[in-house]
Design goal:
mainly beta; 301 residues; single chain; Porin; twelve-stranded antiparallel barrel
Length: 301
């Protein structure tokens, strides 16, 4: 069983694209305003069915163009149906006009139903997943219609156990770039990210999760002053895991299709709904709802 929930939370992409005025129909508030805070939350529901036995302890869940969550997997069953809910929260602070500091955390609830020659099994599990610190910076491209961002993040708290809790720190690192091009009323973007993971002690030995490369192109269209529509794809490649020095899984490549809609609830509040479906690899689908709140003052308008 593999999940790929590409672009389920596009807070850095079309969610934050909104209309400000008739003479400026498309604006990219892609970083938190300098000396301001913004907060966000997201809820992801994913469903997957597998009819093949897999000997992996974790699956890698992509919850955005540059966000990944590792969750335990049901192992060794012939037919497994999984329902997964991921809860996320984030906060960002604008250090300068072009640099942003961020923190995010996630937890998950998993519900497994499986059957084999030995009978049927149903189980569930809720757990803290991880917490990350990050920096994002906007580079000067010399063009008002184009932007380039770089970002780097590290997991300062990560649950490495399949069952129970074992917190490790500094074992996963994420870095990448995002490029935007605005052609009113459309916004084209592409994010390329690389996640490096180091070996860590778990309740099932020493696990070295495979590194991940993800590429997420998308296009957003301003339907009216409050609504943005988006369409994108996600491609990812994950190296095989190793456990106790031996291989545990093979390299996996996968593609998914993402369709979403963003809504400016108010001047300070943005909502985004996204649906995702795998178009290669093991089948799975997800839906997500994301929220972003950034206070604005008269001086910012």
């Amino acid at each position: 069983m593999r999940f790929s929930i590409g672009a389920s939370i596009l807070l850095g992409l079309c969610l934050v694209v909104r209309a400000e005025a008739d003479d400026q129909p498309l604006t990219e508030d892609l970083l938190t305003l300098s000396k301001h805070w913004s907060v966000g939350a997201n809820l992801v529901y994913a469903n997957s069915e597998s009819r093949n036995s897999e000997a992996v302890d974790f699956v890698q869940v992509q919850t955005g163009p540059a966000q990944f969550v590792r969750v335990p997997s049901a192992v060794g069953e012939q037919h497994t149906v999984t329902d997964l809910i991921i809860y996320g929260a984030s906060a960002s602070y604008g250090l300068t006009e072009n640099t942003e500091f961020s923190v995010r955390a996630s937890a998950s609830s998993s519900y497994f139903r499986s059957e084999s020659a030995a009978g049927t099994i149903a189980s569930n599990d809720s757990r803290f997943s991880d917490a990350w610190l990050g920096l994002s910076h906007r580079f000067d491209t010399g063009r008002e219609s184009a932007s380039l961002f770089g970002f780097a993040q590290t997991a300062f708290a990560e649950n490495s156990n399949v069952s129970g809790t074992n917190i490790v720190s500094g074992k996963s690192w994420l870095m990448g770039v995002t490029s935007y091009r605005k052609v009113d009323p459309m916004l084209f973007s592409i994010t390329a990210a690389y996640q490096y993971s180091m070996d860590r002690n778990t309740d099932r030995g020493v696990l070295d999760p495979g590194d991940v490369i993800a590429i997420d192109p998308s296009v957003s269209f301003l339907a009216n002053p409050d609504v943005t529509l988006s369409l994108g794809t996600s491609w990812s490649s994950r190296q095989g895991d190793t456990r106790d020095g031996g291989p545990q899984s093979i390299r996996i490549t996968q593609m998914s299709l993402n369709v979403g809609v963003g809504y400016a609830w108010s001047e300070n509040t943005l909502l985004f709904f996204n649906t995702n479906a795998d178009i290669s690899g093991a089948g799975g689908a997800s839906v997500s709802l994301s929220f972003l709140y950034q206070p604005r003052h008269e001086a910012d308008r």
